[in-house]
Amino acid sequence: MSIKEERKRASSETLKGKNLRKPVVPESRILNPRIRIVTDFMNSNLHRRIHLAELAGVVNLSASRFSHFFKTQTGLSPGDYLRRLRLEKARHLLATTLLTIKEITAMAGYNSKSLFVRHFRRSFGLAPSEYRKTIQGS
Q: How many structural domains are present in the chain?
């Protein structure tokens, strides 16, 4: 099986719900109110750049203490968690809207389309345009 065929097979399995990377920590599992406040803040501000110090300030912790606390509660660093939120939003927009990739890139908080495509491909095994074609073909 060629690399291209293998990638298509893996992509179709991913789209069928098999072999999916786990989404961001489900909200029902976030019990700590500080973490819930921060994740709500992240969800409300996906479209813009968010700094670690800003997230820490939302819950009145130092950046280093917040980063450690967040990782122990969610299993992900704040940056990784935010990246996954953004990519999940982008995947949802690709599947449910007719927005251009450029518009989705901006709505997901990316300034660079190439960085967005790289992160999307790394997470879901397909470029955003390929993902949309696969979804529409279903």
A: 1
- Show the tokens assigned to 58: 């939302």
Q: Is residue 113 part of a domain?
A: yes
The residue among 46, 19, 41 whose CA lies nearest residue 30 is: 41
Mean pLDDT within 75-91: 96
CA-CA-CA-CA dihedral for 33, 38, 40, 42, to nearest 10: -170
Q: Which domain holds residue 84?
A: 25-137
Residue 71 has pLDDT above 70, yes or no: yes
Res 92 pLDDT > 90: yes
- CATH number of the CATH domain containing 38: 1.10.10.60
Q: Which of 60, 129, 55, 130 is nearest to 85 (CA)?
A: 55
